Amino acid sequence: MSVQYGYLAFHLVFIVPPILLLGWLSVRRSGAWLDRRSLSGLAIMIVLAVVYTTPWTNVMIPEGVWWYGDGAVVARLWYTPVEEYLFFVLQPVLTALWLFQFLTVADRSLRIPMGHRIAGALAGLGISVVGWGLLETTATFYLGSILFWAGPILAIQWAFGLTYLRDVWPTVLVGVGVPTLYLWVADRVAIGLGIWEISGTHTVGYTLLGLPVEEALFFLVTNVFVVQGIVFYVWLLDRREELRALVSAPDWTPNVDPDVDRS
Question: Could you tell me which residue ranges the Lycopene cyclase domain spans (predicted)?
């Protein structure tokens, strides 16, 4: 079926305008966090998003998990439309520019309990294990692939700073929640316009006002990646003097501190 609006038009209508608005606010507002630290963190997130997501989409598309309407895409690289690669760049920019409006750094040492690091790593890996099991069934394939794919990144992030998330949870919650809700709406509109379609065979059949739960989960976890990644990055840079002291110490043990708050 030929569609009236293409994937590029989707970017121009739904993604570019809020980026421009948030970018303008980031420059104009004195309280916005826009400096070399935040921008370098965003650059890292963009590179990681492209590198990590590209192989995954190029498995999902030929598997028939989703496809695009006739004439909806300009060209493809491998199996993935060039507009999809563009989205790998634009989504982190959108989410990060929103986060920059209220980003803060909590005063917490990089020394966090080893038990917290282990718990974070196991939680992320546990998500991957659940995803691996769901890959065995066609109806849960998309759901399983998202969980299997997301788990390693969550394991790394949570092993690094699970304790710190407790200190900045309002920032993370708002940073993830608002762009996720917005992208849910935009995705639902795109599906309704036929720009892309989601397989009924590879999904469990539950929806949020017409949006497959798998699509909702995808935008949730990818925004979690971006927000947590930037939050941890600026925290690390804020504590760089402590990091230098720790690394240069001859008896450095990175996760053990008898005086650390283990609550």
Answer: 20-96, 141-226
